[in-house]
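User: Please fill in residues for this 286-position structure.
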């Protein structure tokens, strides 16, 4: 509602951040951010007018893991709703509604479509949720619906989703483990690694760790960009969830207001042979 307060996690998709800074204030909705990986920080940031907690887990591009059930308990005890963007995890690896979330959002452009040839999104509510009617009304008025062909493309992708996500995950874990041992890599962000601060939470609320990871190159932006430019199999592009492996320097993409480290590269691991991808990364890091 107008005049409400929205609380989001610090690390979120660029355009989610822009929505909070440039658009929601037009409807007198105030958006603030907090490190939601720490439940105590959520409690401290809650206000009497807080109506919504918005989070991504894993987050984009830092791969933070938020304890969804703990965040839900805090929010619901204060009358706020919880929406989780679970695009990175997909429904195969994580189901926020079973953890108490009020709604889950997916970019169907990504893993659900799976072939880098369709755009779409889904906002899924609990059965008989009181906000469903309001959202449907907005959808009907604004015309935010899929074309029949786009819907068919996404249905095609859903039929192979579980098999693809399993391979994405296997490849991502193999790459993350190899990068973690590389002398030119400062840090690897992947919840499947025991070194990840959210590893135990991820094991509890996810069935697998997904195909997204990010890593920091020792040095700075110059060194990270040099690595990205030397890769032969990875495509330097902004997207994820397709059969091909992509890499990008998020700091350059996000522009002013970015909180992403300048030496971080985000990797969308594809379905190619893991050893080929690892070999490509290793030659680029040399």
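Assistant: Residues filled in for all 286 positions:
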């Amino acid at each position: 509602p107008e005049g409400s307060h929205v609380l989001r996690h610090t690390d979120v998709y660029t355009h989610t951040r822009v929505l909070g800074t440039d658009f929601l204030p037009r409807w007198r909705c105030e958006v603030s951010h907090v490190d939601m990986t720490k439940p105590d920080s959520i409690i401290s940031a809650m206000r009497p007018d807080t109506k919504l907690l918005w989070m991504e887990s894993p987050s984009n591009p830092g791969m933070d893991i938020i304890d969804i059930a703990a965040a839900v308990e805090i929010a619901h005890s204060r009358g706020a709703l919880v929406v989780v963007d679970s695009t990175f995890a997909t429904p195969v690896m994580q189901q926020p509604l079973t953890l108490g979330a009020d709604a889950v959002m997916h970019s169907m452009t990504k893993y659900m479509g799976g072939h880098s040839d369709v755009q779409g999104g889904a906002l899924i509510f609990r059965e008989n949720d009181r906000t469903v009617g309001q959202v449907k009304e907005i959808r009907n008025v604004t015309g935010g619906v899929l074309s029949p062909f786009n819907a068919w493309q996404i249905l095609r992708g859903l039929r192979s989703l579980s098999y693809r996500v399993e391979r994405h995950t296997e490849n991502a874990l193999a790459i993350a483990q190899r990068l973690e041992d590389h002398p030119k890599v400062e840090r690897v962000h992947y919840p499947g690694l025991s070194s990840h601060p959210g590893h135990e939470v991820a094991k509890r609320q996810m069935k697998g760790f997904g195909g997204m990871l990010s890593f920091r190159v020792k040095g700075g932006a110059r060194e990270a960009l040099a690595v990205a430019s030397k890769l032969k199999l990875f495509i330097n592009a902004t997207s994820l969830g397709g059969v091909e492996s992509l890499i990008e320097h998020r700091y350059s993409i996000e522009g002013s207001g970015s909180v992403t480290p300048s030496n971080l590269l985000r990797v969308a691991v594809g379905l190619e042979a893991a050893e080929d991808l690892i070999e490509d990364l290793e030659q680029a890091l040399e």
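For context: The two ends are 53 Å apart (CA to CA).
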